[in-house]
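Quick start: what a row looks like.
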Amino acid sequence: MAETSSTPSRRRAAPMEPDQRRAMIVAAALPLVVEYGSSVSTAKIARAAGIGEGTIFRAFADKDALLAACMAEAVRPDDTVAHLESIALDQPLTARLTEAAEVMHGYMTRLGAVAGALAAAGRLERSAPSGKDGRSPDREAGLAAPRAALAALFEPDKDTLRLAPERLADAFQLMLMSAGRPGAPDPLTTEELVDLFLNGALTTPGEAR
């Protein structure tokens, strides 16, 4: 009687869809772009992704297209919005905003690292501002979803707020972005930022003259 092998036969993994392959390559490239800037080689990216270098050029027209995709992924706020929306609303407002500030800090750190790495090598294309306020439409679109999620965090306390949740969310977002700029001397902690936003700069209301 012939012996049968107990070793299961290996099945070839199903091929990725083009969008999945591109997303996988970008995910592998992002930390390398932060570390090496635009000088990172496609061979290094391919090794990190566990693919052949030729696969990169079947997914992207050239290295510049891959770098542009990395910047677009860094700007994309989907994960940040999901984290903001998961913050429990039954916490005190201070706790909600502290958690939100940490989430936003992580997003801005990632965005700043990728943008800084590409800008240092002159490989970062900037959209020209077109609005009256000088804001880039692409940048504003990337900020809109996080701002809406921040507004929802103010909503449970709307009856005790001095301004509408949407206006407070806009101000809080701008404050976080300004405080998180690179090279800021003696930067405020998250707790200090939230306390300053909610309680102001004065130790006693009406103290200033």
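That is the whole record. Confidence is low (pLDDT under 50) at residues 127-132. Residues 144 and 170 are 9 Å apart (CA to CA).
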